[in-house]
Specification:
There is one protein chain. By secondary structure, this protein is α+β, with helices and mostly antiparallel strands. It has helices at 2-19, 97-105, and strands at 23-30, 37-42, 52-56, 61-69, 83-87, 92-96, 110-112, 115-120. The chain has a single domain (23-120), classed as Sandwich (Immunoglobulin-like). It contains two helices and eight strands. Strands 4-1-8-7 form a four-stranded mixed β-sheet, with no helix packed on it. It has a four-stranded antiparallel β-sheet with strand order 3-2-5-6. The longest helix is centred in the first third of the chain and has 18 residues, at 2-19. The protein is globular and about 50 Å long.
């Protein structure tokens, strides 16, 4: 009897986990700097740990952090090792986890189904 109860409890537990909603949390940067930027990212995701680099044209928007979650807000998911380096033709700037968390906390989240996003577009990240 005890074995049956344990098997039933495991089944119920697995079923509950399988039905849990998975969210995608994306933080975007809108290039309001007026010049092209070269972005280099590290530790910007909890499912793809490869560093990446790309160009961001003026007024273009691109993801600078993305995480999968079971409900957690993005602020608790940003890795302490997060790093974003922005290079313009004349200057550069590095953003760490604390700066990203602070900037993200100051913008409104948009939510559409299981995708939540934050867009940073105030120019504070311009080098």
């Amino acid at each position: 009897m005890l074995r049956w109860v344990c098997l039933f409890a495991c089944f119920v537990s697995l079923t509950a986990c399988a039905a849990q909603q998975v969210y995608r949390n994306d933080v975007y940067l809108q290039n309001t700097c007026g010049v092209p930027l070269e972005l280099t990212l590290a530790n910007d995701s909890n499912y793809d740990d490869q560093p990446r680099s790309f160009m961001l044209s003026p007024n273009e928007r691109s993801s600078i952090a993305n995480y999968q979650s079971f409900g957690e807000d993005v602020l608790g998911q940003i890795s302490d090792q997060y790093s974003l380096t922005l290079k313009s033709p004349t200057a550069s700037k590095t953003i760490d986890a604390q700066a990203l968390r602070k900037a993200t906390a100051g913008v409104e989240k948009t939510e559409e189904k299981a995708v939540r996003s934050w867009t940073l577009n105030d120019g504070a990240f311009c080098p």
